[in-house]
Design goal:
Layout: E1 3-8, H1 12-18, E2 25-29, H2 39-53, E3 61-65, H3 74-81, E4 88-91, H4 97-113, E5 122-126, H5 131-134, E6 147-151, H6 155-161, H7 175-191, E7 194-197, H8 206-219, E8 223-226, H9 232-238, H10 243-258, E9 264-267, E10 270-273, H11 274-290
Parallel strand pairs: 1-2, 1-8, 2-3, 3-4, 4-5, 5-6, 6-7, 7-8
Antiparallel strand pairs: 9-10
Length: 293
Amino acid sequence: MRSLLFVPGDSPRKLEKSQTSGADALVVDLEDSISTERKAEARAITLSFLKEFGQATQRPRLFVRVNGFQTGLTDADLDVVMAGRPDGIMFPKAEGGASLVHLDAKITAREAIHGIADGHTRVIALTTETAKALFLAGTYADASTRVIGLTWGAEDLSAELGAETNRDADGRFLDPYRLARSLCLAAAAACEVAAIDTVYVDFRNAAGLGRETEEARRDGFTAKMAIHPDQIAVINDVFTPTAEQVAKARAVIAAFAADPGAGVVGLDGVMYDRPHLVRAQRLIAQASAAGVG
């Protein structure tokens, strides 16, 4: 996955439009974009969408962002949407590995109730939305085999910290949120799952989105979340390896294959060691997933 598009779970019109957005995954939202009064209606609309669109042969992956444990609404969300067999659950305000163990148990029970294969439902956890979560970022490894990605958020965290803003005048994240971003990236690497960058809220600023997405790719993120369909093309483009990058990666892999015992190989006057081989293999995997190379 390169791009994950949030779609309000109470809007049939936006859910229908999202199907042609080009996003690799849709995240049907039952949390922040839904008022308390509309939670029940959003669950019902989301279930209908999952049952209908989930049958399509060519479709993005379908996730549902449930409400966090702190709200007391998680069970009610899962009770309804798991009947629609989503590909995964996005878990907001996660607070370390223990919270994932708890979520895993809830999902497992509902898979059994609905005749869904054990482990079918994957999880992406939002790891930095509370201050407490920052201190627990190193505890996600081995918490649940369902986890395929970790992501982070700045909006809820800034509210909890009492901050006036989370970005500077140039639109770049300030230090507390850069720390949260780094902790998420390291946690994903420790878990060997995808690191997914947070949303860029200024959705009409394509240049700013492009800059932030390129910086995310540079640092090791492999995908980015979006809040508007117009953001998807930029995100997909940045996270799709170019033909030149693919060719270089294949050359590095071939050089090591030609000399399996080597710790370092030379290619076009440049020395490459084993970490370069790992990066090349990852890039080829990303290219394959994106249908290029």
